[in-house]
Amino acid sequence: MNVLNEIEALIPDLRRYACALTRDRDAGDDLVQDCLERALAHHRSRRPDGPLRAWMFRILINRHRDLIRRAPRAGHLVAVDDLPVEPGRPAGQDSYMALRETEAAIARLPEDQRRALLLVALQGATFDEAAQALDIPRGTLMSRLARARATLRTMTGRDGTRPVSARPIDKSKDPSP
Amino acid sequence: MTRSALTDEELIAYFEDALSSERRAEIEARLVSDPEAQAKLADWARQNADIQALFIETLDEPVPEHLRAVLHQAPAPRRVPGLFQIAASLAILAVGATGGWVSHANLATPAAPVLLAQAAIDAHDTYAVEVVHPVEVPASERAHMDTWMTKRMGTQMRPPDLSASGFSLMGGRILPSAQGPAGLYMYENEDGKRITLYISRQDTGGDSAFQYTGSGPTQSLYWQDDGLGYAVVGDMPRARLKDLAKRTYDQLL
């Protein structure tokens, strides 16, 4: 199959990941568009050894890092009350609330933990695929995932303690490189 | 057999199916007597289900035509940015111009090379995020760019070839600096990672060794040579930055 067709087939996955990362449909689509433009500019010089999917996600993630640098704190200042509530989800009240809690918790994870968690939990990336896409060693990925999952658990109150979701996460405590 | 509680790292590797069958069997044996770990695994599965449910819609939507168009090289009708976005990007440029370059003159005299490195980082952070106009003159107009930048800088300007490190030249631009016009070259690798090389006059201090500075993820490696200051800037480990700086240095000799 033509590499451009292969890339096109990845667009739905890229969109879902970009929208989840940015929590904004338009910003997510802009991110995907940038990613596709870069892929188009470089696909002929790409090393043929790595999988295309990991390469595309790596481009998207690099682009997202650039954008975060432009607005470094945007991802950490979302007040729980300000999160958009979409009406009419086909779910019972309890599970609806639980979903909203999870969404709010994900929104306040440090950026690199969210990228890692969404790759495996949303995109179903394997350990190696996620490490390749994020361009980090397996050990770093493992500790990022462990921290993301533990934080999510605490913020949704499912670790037996009370939820602390009203308090913002202090980004300076994230020890990632 | 050990009966210590399972660590989160062990559980993550188990949960993500990243273990050898031997290790997997060992973890499973320990799980039986570790209700806390069992609860964690159950909750992680629930996290995954929640995350899947939260973002299910985008997957089923038809792909917007303007995204498909990018790949088919039709001129992509980019979504027109709202007024707020335009205002925000102008504000960033204004901060870059005043906060970044001008106000440094008022600070309590940091050493000139540090100023150069900071100006280089500001320039990188301003332009590396650009989609439409990352450079003023694209690499496709290389001859014109070299003539123009050489004239503006008053010294021979030729961007180094960093293709051995996987970076290809996107182009260059001229920037204002405290020492007169400064040159900025931008490079991109196949992963879409961008680095910049900043060059300006640096009359004080003579030649210097490589030095690092960085604010946040953006790192700069800079040096002085023969009346010019150089800074290689990027968001990457220092070893890789150093490799790029060395290649640059070798070619500028």
Offer a concise description of the structure.
The complex is a heterodimer of chains A (177) and B (253). Chain A has helices spanning 3-22, 25-42, 52-70, 93-107, 111-121, 127-134, 138-155. Chain A has 177 residues and is mainly α.
Shape of chain B: elongated
Our Rg estimate of chain B from Cα atoms comes to 25 Å
Topology as H/E string of chain A? HHHHHHH
* Oligomer class: heterodimer
Estimate percent helicity of chain A: 55-70%
Order of helices and strands of chain B: HHHHHHHEHEEEEEEH
Arrangement of strands in the largest sheet of chain B: 1-2-3-4-7-6-5
Structural class of chain A: mainly alpha
Q: What average pLDDT do the residues of chain A reach?
A: 78
Shape of chain A: globular
pLDDT under 50 segments of chain B (min length 5)? 74-110
Structural class by sheet pairing and helices of chain B: alpha+beta
Strand content of chain B: 15-25%
Give Rg of chain A in angstroms: 17 Å
Tell me what the structure shows:
Chain A is globular and about 50 Å long. The C terminus of chain A is likely disordered. Chain A is mainly α. The longest helix of chain A has 20 residues. Chain A has two domains: 72 residues, Orthogonal Bundle (Rna Polymerase Sigma Factor, Chain: A); 95 residues, Winged helix-like DNA-binding domain superfamily/Winged helix DNA-binding domain (Arc Repressor Mutant, subunit A, Orthogonal Bundle), CATH 1.10.10.10. A seven-stranded antiparallel β-sheet of chain B has the order 1-2-3-4-7-6-5, sandwiched between helices. Chain B has two domains: 52 residues, no CATH class; 142 residues, 2-Layer Sandwich (Phosphorylase Kinase, domain 1), CATH 3.30.200.100. Chain B is built from nine helices and seven strands; from the N terminus they run αααααααβαββββββα. In chain B, helix 6 runs antiparallel to helix 7. Helices cover 45% and strands 19% of the residues of chain B. At the A-B interface, helix 1, helix 2, helix 3, helix 4 and helix 5 of A face helix 1, helix 3 and helix 5 of B.
